[in-house]
Amino acid sequence: MPPAHIDPHLLAARELLRPPAVRACSRGLEPFSRSWFEELEIKRYGPHGGWVRRVLEFTRHSNESLLMLNPGIGSDALQYQRHNTQVTVCVTPSDHPEIIRRNFDLRGLSLRLVHTTHDAGLPFDRGTFDLAYLNLLYTPPANLASQVAELYRILKPGGKIFVLAPARFDAGFWQHLVLPFRRWYRPPVHFTDAPRYSARGLRRVLAPFAEHRTAKRHLRRSELPHLWRFAPVSVLERFMGRVLILRAFKPVTAALEHLTIDSAA
């Protein structure tokens, strides 16, 4: 069983992109049981999170290799694995690797877990992976630029990266701007305390990559002022969604850099 100090409610709230004050599971399921993991998986990709499947392209990368950083409890890793993506999850002790391992074991699935530390580089050769997944929603690295450089290094030329980050210009930002007095009687509630990014700022961080595509998603109607709730949430989330997603590629021309480095070696 997982250590007693791990708070299942906090992990569940993070997996569902909810503030910790919101109750995640209403059926009183045993934490870290198969039913608990399955319910969180269903809710993560439910009506509010339907965008996750589309944006992260779970079904489009069969027989490709993927490196994941900050994987939560492993729900996204499961989706890739089920569609024949070769998943490697790189974890630090703060990622609770025993929880991720238990999630896979209860489904009868194998998982390649690689342990590292916050200040260490990624223990992989240059050009090892086709895909990379970086989650900045809760525990961003101390040196993001260094981690981005490492992900660039381990990706093959033409490889793709997915980045999830808290959006700076989300619903809370626009409510504060348009309705500044609302915070006096209903303070904004954020699902994370991690640094927030604008699309431009995140593209700047991922500058070594090319063909950047950004989008904002994830918004619940209950998070909006009553006057705004008449509009379709699917439209509003594109302007004030809580999660900023960036997809980009390592340039194919990076293959020349690899040849130069190999020749010099």
Automatic annotation (TrEMBL):
<protein>
    <recommendedName>
        <fullName>Methyltransferase domain-containing protein</fullName>
    </recommendedName>
</protein>
<dbReference type="InterPro" id="IPR029063">
    <property type="entry name" value="SAM-dependent_MTases_sf"/>
</dbReference>
<dbReference type="InterPro" id="IPR041698">
    <property type="entry name" value="Methyltransf_25"/>
</dbReference>
<dbReference type="Pfam" id="PF13649">
    <property type="entry name" value="Methyltransf_25"/>
</dbReference>
<feature type="domain" description="Methyltransferase">
    <location>
        <begin position="72"/>
        <end position="159"/>
    </location>
</feature>
